[in-house]
Design goal:
The protein has 405 residues and is an alpha/beta fold. 34% of the residues lie in helices and 26% in strands. The structure holds adenosine-5'-diphosphate, aspartic acid and magnesium ion (MG).
């Protein structure tokens, strides 16, 4: 008997009809003789709706209360999924993240999983029940509910798969798998049959929200092979696993777009050791993830620092930069929200040159201006105007020969 973890995302459990369909698929897996743990997200849109309600009652809601609120979305779907299975005569029990033994640190809204005590899940499985676990949530040492960052149900699924040593982990979503670009932006995008953890991680952290990036990191660390596939059909999906030699033959695997970024320019700071450290210490202390960083050449002892942060953190960033400005004798903080990041990713870049030149030429030919540039071993990212980024993604996809025939 093998063990399977099946995760169903927000669209897959978007309404009661879809929840019933999900229950049918789970029933099929059970009837094939497998032990099944299911992880579900909140219905599509519910997490955003709850966030909007929080903002409507308080401009800056407490992060602890935010977790209390947002975790509700998943609690609705676990119960409904269990009930739908009961309707099919399948024994099933719903568990919150805490009941499933997912223990996290205290960092509300972005908590990290510390341990998983799967004994309660194991006990139910051995009684022949399907266990339905609420994604996106855990519990901290004090017994308070935490959430794992947006898209965090992916992480719940991968972590549980590791903890119960599942034979298979399937991530069911509203697309057939991981594509060479977001099919909503690039209609010529193609499904990828297999992709390495490193490429998937770079795609995810560059804005391909088909998988939460932290979940991919966790999968790589714990060697969890998983498949991303559609809950609406039985097509083969995309297998995400460790790199194998033939993967390097493909130079650019995919193109990612991230519209959830803002650019911050701290201008006129003292060009001396310690200035940048102070600025980024402030960001780190506020748990703000800084992505691209550019410092221009100092002139007359003065320099400018430009960097990107998640769009949702701009207010927080501005606030914690204020006290730092005095220390680094900075003149000004400017925030630009009308930007987006475009990235090309591929393990083949390690052994092939010319990717940057081709990318820049493609954008130049379309008269698209590049604002910031960063590179890693397997990725090149550029910041562009928000209103040109979709077009830039389509052009880039074509330049690297990724368009479907
Ligand atoms: P779920 O609710 O199932 O977790 P998400 O909305 O989080 O689903 O992720 C699926 C969506 O990710 C797709 O509908 C698609 O628009 C988007 N997406 C972005 N980049 C990609 C990509 N490279 N391949 C597939 N889907 C992508
Ligand atoms: N419901 C959460 C979110 O919308 C978690 C998830 O869907 O994975 O971010
Ligand atoms: Mg998701």
């Amino acid at each position: 008997m093998s063990r399977i973890v099946q995760k169903f995302g927000g669209t897959s459990v978007g309404d009661v009809e879809r929840i019933k369909k999900v229950a049918e698929r789970i029933k099929l897996t059970v009837s094939q003789g497998h032990q099944v743990v299911v992880v579900v997200s909140a219905r599509a849109g519910v997490t955003n709706e709850l966030m909007a309600r929080a903002k409507a009652v308080c401009a800056e809601p407490s992060e602890r209360e935010m977790d209390m609120l947002l975790s509700v979305g998943e609690q609705e779907t676990i119960a409904l999924t269990a009930m739908a299975l009961h309707g099919h005569g399948v024994e099933a029990v719903s568990f919150t993240g805490g009941m499933a033994g997912i223990q996290t640190d205290r960092l509300h809204t972005k908590a990290r999983i510390q341990t998983i005590d799967a004994s309660a899940v194991e006990a139910q499985l051995s009684e022949g029940k399907v266990v339905i676990v609420a994604g996106f949530q855990g519990i901290n040492e004090d017994g308070h509910i935490t959430t794992l960052g947006r898209g965090g149900s992916d992480l719940s699924a991968i972590a549980i798969a590791a903890a119960i040593k599942a034979d298979k982990c399937e991530i069911y979503t509203d697309v057939d798998g991981v594509y060479t670009a977001d099919p909503r932006i690039v209609s010529a995008a193609r499904k990828i049959n297999e992709v390495s953890y490193d490429e998937m991680l770079e795609l995810a952290s560059s804005g391909s929200k088909v998988m939460q990036s932290r979940s991919v990191e966790f999968a790589e660390k714990h060697g969890v092979i998983f498949e991303v596939r559609s809950s609406f059909n039985f097509n083969r999906g995309t297998v995400v696993k460790a790199e194998v030699p033939h993967m390097e033959k493909i130079v650019v695997r995919g193109v990612a777009v991230d519209k959830d970024q803002a650019k911050i320019i701290v201008s006129n700071i003292l060009d001396k050791p310690g200035s940048a450290a102070k600025v980024f210490r402030a960001m780190a202390d506020a748990n703000i993830v800084v992505d691209m960083i550019v410092q221009n050449v100092g002139r007359n002892g003065i320099a400018n620092l430009t960097f990107t942060v998640p769009l949702g953190d701009t207010l927080k960033a501005q606030k914690c930069l204020e006290p730092v400005l005095d220390e680094v004798r900075g003149g000004h903080v400017a925030v630009h929200e009308n930007i987006a990041k475009l990235s090309v990713v591929g393990v083949g870049m390690k052994t092939h040159s010319g990717v940057a030149a081709d990318l820049f030429k493609g954008l130049a030919d379309a008269d698209i201006n590049i604002d910031l540039i960063t590179t890693s071993e397997i990725k090149i990212s550029v910041v562009l105007d928000l209103d040109r980024v979709d077009e830039a993604a389509r052009i880039t996809h074509k330049v690297f020969g990724l368009d479907a025939d």
